[in-house]
Amino acid sequence: TNEQFIAYLTLFGDGQPERAALPVLKKILEKKRGVKAVQLFSDAKYLRDLIISIPDRVILSLVEGLLAIPVGPEACEAASKILLDGTDMRPAANPAVIFALLGKDETTFTDLVASKSLANELAYLERATLMLEAMPDADSKLMEAVR
User: Fold this and answer.
1) Closest-CA residue to 98 (of 129, 77, 67)
2) Torsion over CA of 36, 85, 77 and 122, rounded to 10 degrees?
3) What's the whole-model pTM score?
4) Rounded to whole angstroms, how far apart are CA atoms 64 and 95?
5) Cα–Cα distances in Å, from 146 out to 56, 92, 117, 118?
6) Residue 69, CB-side half-sphere exposure with 13 Å CA sphere
């Protein structure tokens, strides 16, 4: 059960990734009914789909813990690829969310944006610049990457 898995995670010491992911896991289980905690730690696709279903501001508040989950980096990168353009059910994410999901790595962010066609890449960067300029606490590394 989810409760048993949470109890198991408390056995890990401070500084270990499993322990770092515990607060995020608790928050997810509190808000999303029917989520399987063990699967979040072992199935990157399951975690990716959960990330995509979460609003941008919530992703930003959870991203450090999501990246601490064993399959977190893989799931976050996969989610960022989908959230770059969005889906029928989910609009494209704010560039700050994409950047955070990629571990705030400018090169990975730039490479992801560069995977678009040139016209779409330029349009995305233009929109991203406007969005980020409107954010008072936009990451300076992200601003530089977008420019």
Assistant:
1) 77
2) -170
3) 0.87
4) 16
5) 19, 16, 16, 14
6) 32
Q: From CA 139, how far away is CA 105, in angstroms rounded?
A: 11
Question: What total number of domains does the chain contain?
Answer: 1
Range 43-58 average pLDDT = 95
pLDDT of the residue at 122: 87
Report the alpha-carbon distance of residue 34 to residue 120 in Å, rounded. Answer: 37
Yes or no: say if 110 and 147 are a contact pair by the CB < 8 Å rule.
no
Calpha distance 65→108 (Å, rounded): 20
Q: Could you report the per-residue pLDDT of 60-104, keeping only the tens digit for each?
A: 999 999 999 999 999 999 999 999 988 888 898 899 999 999 999
Is residue 36 classed as helix, strand or coil in its secondary structure? coil
Q: If you search the block for the tokens 């072992």, which residue do you land on?
A: 42
Rounded CA gap, 144 and 147, in Å? 5
